[in-house]
Specification:
CATH class of the largest domain: Alpha Beta
Structural class: mainly beta
Number of strands: 11
Distance between the termini: 27 Å
Radius of gyration: 18 Å
GO molecular function, one term: peptidyl-prolyl cis-trans isomerase activity
Catalytic activity: [protein]-peptidylproline (omega=180) = [protein]-peptidylproline (omega=0)
Order of helices and strands: EEEHEEEEEEEEH
Keywords: Chaperone, Cytoplasm, Isomerase, Rotamase
Number of domains: 2
Strand content: 25-35%
CATH topology of the largest domain: Chitinase A, domain 3
Family: Belongs to the FKBP-type PPIase family.
GO cellular component, one term: cytoplasm
Number of helices: 2
Largest sheet: 5 strands, antiparallel
CATH architecture of the largest domain: Roll
């Protein structure tokens, strides 16, 4: 059975940056594969397009430029926020708000996003809201473990959103669309689910 729309796909992959022999930053294993409904819009479009037609047992190598993946780094997504926004009961929360931490935030319109704390001064917290893999070319090497018809329930669940290649979701915010809610276990995106989201 080939990968086409509304098929449930299970696959493994090693995700690397800086070339096919570069640093591995995420991995889906046979024990914790990436499971998704093909064509539901949960994956990066180019990643999904290059999987179409593959069958169970097929190996794949997918190279995505940063423009085909998470885009270029957007300098406008690096912002200075007033430090008082991070007060909890009148006190600055320096356990969570510290340089190098990724902090869940909400925009004025209610959109959830993660910000990386870059700098803290007396008055501001500088945060980067770019995707962690913005500006990076991505290299996937993997194998298709299974392709089957998705159930009506699996298809309905994708309508509610979820996460995978390109969704920006995270298992930590309950947004994982993976069938078993498995998270990436290796590298910079541990705690995320599926292809660097």
């Amino acid at each position: 059975m080939a990968i086409t729309k509304n098929k449930m796909v299970s696959l493994t992959y090693d995700l690397r940056i800086e070339g096919a022999n570069g640093e591995m930053i995420e991995q889906a294993t046979a024990e914790k594969p990436l499971n998704f409904v093909y064509g539901a819009g949960l994956m990066m479009p180019k990643f999904e397009a290059l999987l179409e037609g593959l069958e169970q047992g097929n190996d794949f190598n997918i190279n995505l430029s940063c423009d085909e993946a998470y885009g270029q780094i957007d300098e406008n997504a690096i912002v200075d926020l007033p430090k008082h926004l991070f007060l909890v009961e009148g006190k600055f929360d320096d356990e969570i708000i510290k340089v190098g931490n990724t902090v869940p935030m909400m925009s004025a319109s209610g959109q959830r996003m993660n910000g990386l704390v870059l700098e803290i001064t007396d008055d501001i917290v500088k945060m980067d809201f770019n995707h962690p893999l913005a500006g990076e070319d991505l290299f996937f090497k993997g194998k298709v473990l299974e392709v089957r018809d998705a159930t009506d329930e699996e298809i309905a669940a994708t309508v509610q959103g979820g996460c995978g290649c390109g969704s920006g979701g995270s298992c930590n915010d309950g947004g994982c669309g993976c069938e078993d809610e498995s998270c990436a276990t290796e590298g910079a995106n541990a705690g995320g689910c599926g292809c660097g989201c």
